[in-house]
Amino acid sequence: MPPFPSSFPPKRELITTFDFVDIANGLGYEVFWLIASKDSTSLKLGLTNLNLVSDRDGPSSSTGTLSFDTSVFNLPRTVKGTLLANILLSSSATVNNNTYSIKIQVVHSDDSTTDISSTISNDEADLFSSTVQTFLMEIPLTQRTIKKGEKIRAIITTTPASGTMHLEHNGSESRLNIPFRIDNI
Prior knowledge:
- By secondary structure, this protein is mostly beta strands.
- Helix content is 3%, strand content 54%.
- The protein contains 1 helix and 12 strands; from the N terminus they run αββββββββββββ.
- The strands form 2 sheets. Strands 1, 2, 3, 5, 9, 11 and 12 form a 7-stranded antiparallel β-sheet that branches. Strands 4, 6, 7, 8 and 10 form a 5-stranded antiparallel β-sheet that branches.
- Strand 6 and strand 7 form a beta hairpin.
């Protein structure tokens, strides 16, 4: 048996790839999918950067507010720029002028929160019975470093003009494209 080595080769360099637009803007977008899981006692909502199919059960009501959290960050990252929300909605009836809104927060380790966006609303979401429709929303973010141990929360509120409205959040439909500065990756 050969002797155990007394020294090890140096650590390899990390290779990270960005396209030209990322480098020119100094930003890289990370996709977070809206997910839900349901156990015997409750519905759990979250944001994950993995495209995992999950349970779709969730509120379909005259008005509903859902909070989706990422897991805690292991390293600090700085949000900067405009978040792109790609939201899928459905309705129990054909109704015009439905409203939905999104607000983004940082959740600190003590569970207090800080808003990093205003509440952005769309009051012209025209929905057709039993069909899923996609809406794109741009949400300007306040530049802020998310510290180790903190997480990001998206608060989404749906208000149908009549009937019920459903936010599709099964892990492969609605998503948030969050911009991070690439100089601290």
